[in-house]
Amino acid sequence: MLTAAQCLAKYGPPSDKNRCMVLWDVPASLEIGIIPKRLYCNRDLIEPATAAFTKLIQTGAIRDLLTFDGCFNIRKKRGGATWSLHSWGVALDFDAFRNRMGVPNGAMTHRVAECFTSSGFDWGGMWKGRTYDPQHFELAKI
Ligand SMILES: [Zn+2]
Q1: Which candidate, 133, 120, 125, 129, places its Cα nearest to that of 49?
Q2: If phi over 0 gives left and psi between -120 and 50 gives alpha, with beta otherwise, what is residue 79?
Q3: How far apart are CA 76 and CA 86, in angstroms?
Q4: What's the angle, vertex CA 7, arms to CA 31 and CA 85, rounded to 5?
Q5: 130 Rama sector, left if φ>0, alpha if ψ -120 to 50, beta otherwise
Q6: Ligand 1 centroid to 29 CA: how many Å?
């Protein structure tokens, strides 16, 4: 599991000027459904996200998702003192409206979760020892 301490060590303090952050021009072939055309994210997110988005499209699982709810957002973890991994742009949220914190799995379908977990992401819907966060996918390692 990736931690805020690991992100801090590799990328430094969260900032929109951080050199790990890039404006990713998402390839046109991936601009399907709710996948954004441009994404301000960590450069380390691009390769795994490309793999996950490609799988979402190829399997049709993209149709299970209704909203994209963000990537880069400097903030503390909900109910916590440490930085959210969104602070370094290494996490993605989808369908927040129906995947509230604390609900295991939420409304996230298995095939959506599989597209991400097989592409290098951990899924908040299956966390052990942490409050479930089924809308949330984050890089498993950096
Ligand atoms: Zn999140």
Answers
A1: 120
A2: left
A3: 9
A4: 50
A5: beta
A6: 25
Going from the Cα of 126 to the center of ligand 1, the distance in angstroms, rounded, reads 13
Digit-by-digit pLDDT tens for the chain (142 residues) are 899 999 999 999 999 999 999 999 999 999 899 999 999 999 999 999 999 999 999 999 999 999 999 999 999 987 778 999 999 999 999 999 999 888 887 899 999 999 999 999 999 998 877 889 999 999 999 9
Residue 99 near residue 70, CB atoms below 8 Å: no
Asked whether the beta carbons of 138 and 85 are under 8 A apart, the reply is yes
Ligand 1: centre distance to CA 12 (Å):
20
Q: State the amino acid at position 95 in one-letter form.
A: D
Contact 108, 125 (CB under 8 A): yes
pTM: 0.95
Q: How far is the CA of 135 from the centre of ligand 1 (A)?
A: 6
Say which residues have a Cβ less than 8 Å from residue 9's Cβ, sequence separation at least 6. Answer: none
- How many A from CA of 137 to the centre of ligand 1? 6
Answer whether 135's CB lies under 8 Å from 107's CB.
Answer: no
